[in-house]
Amino acid sequence: MESYASECGETEAVAEKPKVVLGVSGGIAAYKACELLRRLTESGHDVRVVPTASALHFVGAATWSALSGHPVSAEVWSDVHEVPHVRIGQEADLVIVAPATADMLAKAAHGLADDLLTNTLLTARCPVVFAPAMHTEMWEHPATQENVATLRRRGALVIEPAVGRLTGVDTGKGRFPDPAELFEVVRRVLARGGLAQDLAGRHVVISAGGTREPLDPVRFLGNRSSGKQGYALARSAAARGARVTLVAANAALPDPAGVDVVPVGTAVQLREAVLKAAADADAVVMAAAVADFRPETYAAGKIKKKDGQEPAPIALVRNPDILAEVAGDRRRPAQVVVGFAAETDDVLANGRAKLARKGCDLLVVNEVGERKTFGSEENEAVVLGADGSETPVPYGPKEALADTVWDLVAARLS
């Protein structure tokens, strides 16, 4: 997007800020949207906040106006000469409703327009994202689920709510996602130029992180994997409309918005969780660094150092080959299986051999080391296909590699 201004007789291009409408409906999680607003404005987005009248009971108009730099109203009758009920939606590059209550989802699904926000939703021709927040019973009610299905069918991105503490002492699904993770959704949708919902209606399973094999109560055999690539894959898939199950092994990262996270520790636990989730999955991406071996025995007490004695050798046994098992025993005929190969030498040759040995459809091959890939925000790889294809991904953010992987998976699913 560019606008052109003339100054001192010269015309130069000035990049416009992306225009985001932040709709806020009347739930207790409205206060958390202030953090989302702060992240959006500080990262260079022009944000117009459109609250409902109920939302203003939780956070006042003065707060929204001060944080956004724009006047705030819930009424269609304010500044009528500017036709805000039409103009705001028409000019937006993205609309996100956060939190989206059950009432707001129902109004949006049925096309009601009784305030400024619902009018904006009807006039918007840009990507629309809903971040629901409500009690578990309200989220699971058939009426709400039907409204969500309707919105998704029309192309909106409705993020799955998080699981956790709700209002009062209740706990369950319906919690407002982490604002920082919602910001990542907005950023990813805008970066891709819209809502490419090529994974809508699909269930994808992703493993991430590194397994730890306990030796005694305080020690384990592990690896350097941070889980960042797997989490990038999860965020990207959720932004493209998929239902995402993320099996996370020892990853100290916030849960991605709209993703069901299953925490695990060991390779055996990861295998159990992946096989269970893969039963109805359209795609399985094994990005976790799974330990090849584990100690044969587990010491119930801490192994002590003895003066004058060398430590006893640690006997190892093989862990299950989860990638080969998933690829060889697909529960769904059209399931796409993706593996990762971390190599230190002869990267492509070893990758091709592993691809054939494992039987997966795609294999992401990258060179790793103490200061390469593991723990980094960037990655570089080649995606090898069982059909003989090679797709190089140049050095860059891990989310770029994630998008390439899903482009290739989506093409095979279609």
List the helices and strands and how they pair.
Elements: E1 2-7, E2 10-15, E3 19-24, H1 33-42, E4 46-51, H2 61-68, H3 84-91, E5 94-100, H4 102-110, H5 116-123, E6 128-132, H6 136-140, H7 142-153, E7 157-158, E8 162-165, E9 171-175, H8 179-191, E10 203-209, E11 213-216, E12 219-221, H9 228-239, E13 243-249, E14 259-264, H10 267-278, E15 283-286, E16 293-295, E17 316-318, H11 322-328, E18 336-343, H12 347-358, E19 362-367, E20 378-385, E21 390-397, H13 398-413
Parallel strand pairs: 3-4, 3-5, 5-6, 6-7, 10-13, 10-15, 13-14, 15-18, 18-19
Antiparallel strand pairs: 1-2, 8-9, 11-12, 16-17, 19-20, 20-21
Helix pairs in contact: 1-2, 1-8, 3-5, 4-7, 8-9, 9-13
Structure, explained:
The protein is an alpha/beta fold. It folds into two domains: 16-191, Flavin prenyltransferase-like (Rossmann fold), CATH 3.40.50; 203-413, Rossmann fold (3-Layer(aba) Sandwich). The chain is built from 13 helices and 21 strands. The protein has helices spanning 33-42, 61-68, 84-91, 102-110, 116-123, 136-140, 142-153, 179-191, 228-239, 267-278, 322-328, 347-358, 398-413, and strands at residues 2-7, 10-15, 19-24, 46-51, 94-100, 128-132, 157-158, 162-165, 171-175, 203-209, 213-216, 219-221, 243-249, 259-264, 283-286, 293-295, 316-318, 336-343, 362-367, 378-385, 390-397. Strands 14-13-10-15-18-19-20-21 form an eight-stranded mixed beta sheet, with helices on both faces. A five-stranded parallel beta sheet has the order 4-3-5-6-7, sandwiched between helices. A two-stranded antiparallel sheet has the order 1-2. Helix 1 packs parallel to helix 2, helix 1 packs across helix 8 and helix 4 (102-110) crosses helix 7 (142-153). The radius of gyration is 24 Å and the shape is globular. The relative contact order is 0.09. Residues 1-14 have low confidence and may be disordered.
